[in-house]
Amino acid sequence: MPATHGADEDVDWPAAEAAWGTRFPSDFIAFMGRFGAGSINGEASILLPMPKPGLQWDPAEMAEETDNARQMWVAEGGRSAFDVDPESIIAWGVAGGSDILCWLTSDPDPDRWPVLVCGRHTADSFAVYPYGMAEFLFRLCSDEFDVSPVSITFWDGGHLSFVHWRKAQRRWQEGRNPETGEPDPYAGEFTD
Q1: Alpha-carbon distance 156 to 146, whole Å?
Q2: Which parts of 25-161 fold into alpha helices (H)?
Q3: Where is this region: Disordered (predicted)?
Q4: Tens-digit pLDDT profile for residues 78-111
Q5: Helices within the chain (DSSP H only)
Q6: Rounded to a whole number, what is the distance in angstroms from the first to the last CA of the chain?
Q7: CA distances from 102 to 61, 86, 149, 163, 186 (A)
């Protein structure tokens, strides 16, 4: 996936780690440095570890999606299925079908955290994958799962693209589709 429309997010990692009370996986740190937060094919959004001040497009906030995943975990019996406290869940992304992509943080080494998918319209509400974030995304983008771990058809074999949230915001404000850059009669309609 080319980083053409990515950007170094320039995250203050010590501040993010202090806020979250943990280090982050090295693949997530590298992803933020190469791509930043934004959208893959308009179907999955990678979240910022800390909110950015001022007007912004996507992504949703990591704290908000973590709270959503933890509430879902409690409401739909995640602990009984995996015996993990909801505090061990941190969201790093969301998929277009309202699925929340998370880490299970019970291992003290963040590079060993597996991916947890909190699925809204998947066969199981919760599924754990023994990969880090980058490998999970690679497998998702390569269509390597027998059954899709997310609620949508993520990849149709075509071109993969990443669009940083700032680029998507500029496109929208210019009246273009945030993902493709093509003219969009509805883009910019709700801006100030």
Answers
A1: 14
A2: 26-34, 62-75, 78-82, 133-141
A3: 172-192
A4: 877 788 889 999 999 988 768 899 999 999 999 9
A5: 13-20, 26-34, 62-75, 78-82, 133-141, 165-173
A6: 33
A7: 13, 11, 12, 21, 32
